[in-house]
Amino acid sequence: MPMRWGRLRLGNFLPANEIAVDLGTSNTLIYVRGQGIVLNEPSVVAVEKATGKVKGIGLEAKRMLGRTPEGIVAVRPLKDGVIADFDVTEKMLRYFLSTIIQKHFFRVKPLVVVCVPSGITEVERRAVRDSAHSAGAKEVYMVAEPMAAAIGVGLPVETPTGNMAIDIGGGTTEIAVIALSGIVSDTSIRTGGDEMDQSIVQFMRKNYNLLIGEPTAEAIKIHIGSAVPMKDEKEMEAKGRDLVSGIPKVVRVHSSEIREAMQEPIQQIIDAVRRSLEITPPELASDIVDRGIVMAGGGSLIRGVDVLLSQETALPVRVDEDPLTCVVRGTGRILEDPQKYRSVLTT
User: Fold this and answer.
1) What is the 3-state secondary structure (H, E, C) of the chain?
2) Regions of the chain short of the pLDDT cut 70
3) Are 187 and 285 in the same domain?
4) Do 39 and 132 sit in the same domain of this protein?
5) Which of 68, 88, 144, 179 is the most core-located residue (most Cβ within 10 A)?
């Protein structure tokens, strides 16, 4: 499909009508050309079971997770980085896009660039495309998440120098070696923050006979989760339901316990990085030795995960200053300079 940005940008008096969407498992972020990031909401929708009517979207719906009455269910329509429920995703994306379109007074349907996992299948790609079109997009382009993350952190992806980027999201971890505006080697695994949350849920169930919900597990991960032993080990209260007595209970958990609980998914990410390095061409591997690895995504905020990765690979590792917005910022840069990044887009 030919690019039509030249036609869309005729004249400087039209409002921006190009949108970048990071359609993530945990959060959806939207960037408008010339405006920056204008929306950051949880990818959660509350739906009435009987009628399919939407009762809440985004933060409003996330507050309902694990708290809804029998007739309402709060769902996350994206799983492992891809669309699991097409109808609900379409409603969510339509709501977000219509909010942006009304707020910014778009006169024509927008051109939309959507970030997708590098390991996405053609069927999943079609679901993303159809969902964006149904939500009001005129044209839809896609960019691989690790490429967008690399551009977002400021790596010179258009040069022949090898750059390695890791994006640990809610549903997937994307690892890519990039050179000359292309992904030379990539590894995509469906392990991310959600699996870490589940490992905490299982740990609490097994060791404390305590049933906790995903929001509680996520809070534990954020507050005391770590990948390596820390100088300032922490404790916090975990509230849930006792599986033996059936009544509410509070226990105190230590950061060392949570580190043990999250060990398996974190090790899966380390192994994936090793596999990606093993298939990297030697010349690019030498560049990575000099330049190191850049981490993005919410999972990179876990304390010590960069230290562990550096220990396991013997390479310098750094986490971007704002890892949660790396992908959408990178896609925004593509919108701002389409000629430079034209080759990274697909339809």
Assistant:
1) CCCCHHHHCCCCCCCCCEEEEEECCCEEEEEECCCEEEEEEECCEEEECCCCCEEEECHHHHCCCCCCCCCEEEECCEECCEECCHHHHHHHHHHHHHHHHHHCCCCCCCEEEEEECCCCCHHHHHHHHHHHHHCCCCEEEEEEHHHHHHHHCCCCCCCCCCEEEEEECCCCEEEEEEECCEEEEEEEECCCHHHHHHHHHHHHHHHHCEECCHHHHHHHHHHHCECCCCCCCCEEEEEEEECCCCCEEEEEEEHHHHHHHCHHHHHHHHHHHHHHHHCCCHHHHHHHHHHCEEEECHHHHCECHHHHHHHHHCCCEEECCCHHHHHHHHHHHHHHCHHHHHHHCEC
2) 1-16, 104-107
3) yes
4) yes
5) 144
What pLDDT digit, counting tens, does each position of 195-226 carry?
A: 999 999 999 999 999 999 988 999 999 999 99
Q: What is the pLDDT of residue 106?
A: 63
CA distance 21 to 299: 19
- Tell me the CATH number at 31: 3.30.420.40
Q: Of the candidates 261, 279, 304, which is a domain's last residue? A: 261
- Residue 211 lies in domain: 193-261
Q: Does 182 share its domain with 203?
A: no
Return the bridge partners of 240, or none.
Answer: 249
pLDDT at 109: 80
316 and 333 share one domain: no
The amino acid at 269: I
